[in-house]
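Before the break, one more example. Copy the sequence into your notebook; we will annotate it together after we see the structure.
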Amino acid sequence: MRPHRRRTLLTVLVVGASICLAAPAAAATTGPTPKVINGSLGSPLAAASVALETTTGYCTAGLWKPRILVTAAHCINGDGAGAPGFTAAELTIFAPGSDKSTGPSAVKVSQIIYNPNWTKTRDDIAFLVLDAPLATPIITRMATADEVAALAAEGSTISYVGYGLTGPRADESSVTSTVPYAVSQPMSTRTDSPGVFELAGDGVHGTCAGDSGGPFMVAVGSDLLYLGPLSGGSGPPCEDPSEESSDEAAIASVHTELIAAALAAAGEAADPTACAQGPDLKRECVGGRTWTYSFCWSARKATLQRETAGVWNQVARTTGRKLRACGRKTPYEINFTIAGEPGAVRYRVVLPKQAGLARGATDDFTLTVT
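Here is what the structure looks like once it is written out:
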């Protein structure tokens, strides 16, 4: 690594409870269930939410790819531990964001991919492969585990849209909604299980029975990130008011084997990935098409250049800010955020001769987006 610069000592987000069962069609199920109460109608995120019916109950799913839905495993197999679940023929889906009273979609589920040995703290996620494209997804990609962790550390507010009950589960007059409702909740820094993220409820707004498997999403830059399906919850406004209000969801992107199987079965492309590598830059990959160059340098003025047909052209310039975390020898943080295009493109950061840099310097790298 060049003596004039080093990696910024900061984390950069680059763009960068109990199990909940499906809502019953007849008899009530036991145990806490997810809950959408006091939500809002007309959310533009409703286009990512799909109503899902089984032969005995209701759930929600998220449209990740034109031919792939993601829902909770317990919507497919409520008993878990290897018990037989529903078959693809026993599932009915509706157009994304639609009113269920208009009838189901002609598109059918052709394959179900999940871990039949899921538990309430592990693998509560299922991928539904469709026999035809259902719609064009508004979700850009899945959030990486690091992105989910960064969002949780910041207490970020994320959104959910589903078709569950609009009143407490104990209220016999409560019914599942025919239209999708949206609710926003702050993420919690607490988590009891790996591969799971938690949300703190306010006791007034939340999801309910029938919302299991619905999508949690957040907009980051130009991306709409899919974090994972709703798995569990407790406390008001849906459950026992004496309990703490919270929800749990599976982190979708960590289930790499299930994802690979679903993509192969559906013939869909993987989410985009941006990877940067250079003589002085170890290969570094992030989800999405955007990558951020972030290094501490001994000088503050820099330009970003891109090679096109053998010619280097300036595309951006910056003046670095002095950052205590960078230390005394390389005190200036130099940042360039690059929105990459499919394929490999060469870039270089150029620092001319200036105070702190007697001879000038360049930092070459290739950004590959797949």
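The domain at 272-369 is CATH 2.60.40 (Immunoglobulin-like). The first strand starts at residue 5 and ends at 7. Try to locate both features in your own notes.
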